[in-house]
Amino acid sequence: MQQWAGISKLLYLSKQEIALLCASSLCIFDELSIFFSIYFCFPLRCVMSELILSRMFIISVACFLLLGSDVTGVLYVNTTVGESTVLPCNLMLPATTDLKHLRFYWQDEREQVLYSFNEGKEMPEHVNKLYRDRITAFPQDMTGGNISVKFEYPTLEDNHRVFRVFGAVFDSRGTKRFIIGHSEICQLTLHVAVPYEHISLTVNEETMTAVCTTRRGFPEPLVEWRLQNHSDNTQHLLDPQDVNTTAAPDPQDHLYSLTSTIVIPGGPYQSVACLVHNPTLNVTLIATHVLNKGEAERSRLSLAGALMVAAAAVLIY
Description:
Blueprint: H1 2-11, H2 15-23, H3 31-39, H4 43-68, E1 74-80, E2 85-87, E3 102-108, E4 113-118, E5 121-122, E6 135-137, E7 149-151, E8 162-170, E9 178-193, E10 199-204, E11 209-217, E12 222-229, E13 235-237, E14 243-249, E15 256-263, E16 269-278, E17 283-290, H5 292-316
Helix pairs in contact: 1-4, 2-4, 3-4
């Protein structure tokens, strides 16, 4: 992507404007005529011609980068099982592109076709049975370059699927000449999750142990333990080495169950909290337990302090 920043700065053009120049064939020029216009010229004209030549050369390089290489990054899409999601992709088109001049298709990393569109028509016969009745496009937005699709009913079988979009645009003169040749337009990876809906925290204040459990979610969750200090309400994050956590997927549906256990360290702590985080959905469940033993210890300390003050007063008198 750095080469685009440099080229755009030299040309004072955006990437989209460069694409439109390429699409309208402005990248093609007669080097020989430019050479002679430079050779037989006055000094001022020479400077202008050299500038034109330089700009045209840079534009030609930009066209090569745009149309001949993969300039798109990999996008990550997160969704929930059973919840429809949009797989986004945009193709930079000339302003007057007719759908009859557009061809594109989506496929996964196994080269199974999700969706196919060719010269104004959807091509359902090309779609693999795995994706039939699950993919819809947005024909009303295609003339603007929106070749996204909506993915219905995602399952855990779709997790980590890599989708690629290939497309081409023909010229408007019916010659089948490509304005944009067959190339990869977009690439994205789908992450599918199941939310953890419940979290349970059990604390035994006699043994000063705490057990946190959650179940039936995906992917494997991240767990964290925090202790809240009574004196200043600051939170102490427990070292992972002091946490015993086991998480295992169900062999049938692949949903995870987690159990995490700690020994609560000594100190003036008023509460203990277990945090379970779903990394795909970026959702955290929190369970908190208030430590009654901490209150008792503080009461005993206060009583001892009061007795010491009383004893000191007796000695003085």
